[in-house]
């Protein structure tokens, strides 16, 4: 989730995967995939940076999770069922 600010200065979190487009004319408007729109105080560039940082954090956490898996705990071959050919 990224945290952005409405024009009334209330903050809220939005799922960046649902953002279809960002418009700046002159206010920055987030348009979600379902058509919902939010006007925010952040600039277009700031929203793009928030989304980029969010995605970088997701990738970094996934990489950390993979690095912490013990080699012995990885299943390399599925067990066969008895009686199967």
UniProtKB/TrEMBL annotation:
InterPro entries: SwrD-like. This is Flagellar FlbD family protein. It comes from the Bacteria. Keywords: Cell projection, Cilium, Flagellum.
């Amino acid at each position: 989730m990224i945290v952005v600010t409405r024009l009334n200065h209330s903050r809220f979190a939005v799922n960046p995967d649902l953002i279809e487009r960002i418009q700046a004319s002159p206010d920055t408007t987030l348009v979600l995939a379902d058509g919902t729109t939010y006007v925010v105080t952040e600039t277009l560039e700031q929203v793009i940076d928030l989304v980029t940082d969010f995605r970088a954090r997701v990738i970094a956490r996934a990489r950390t999770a993979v690095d912490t898996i013990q080699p012995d705990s990885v299943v390399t071959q599925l067990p066969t069922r008895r009686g199967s050919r």
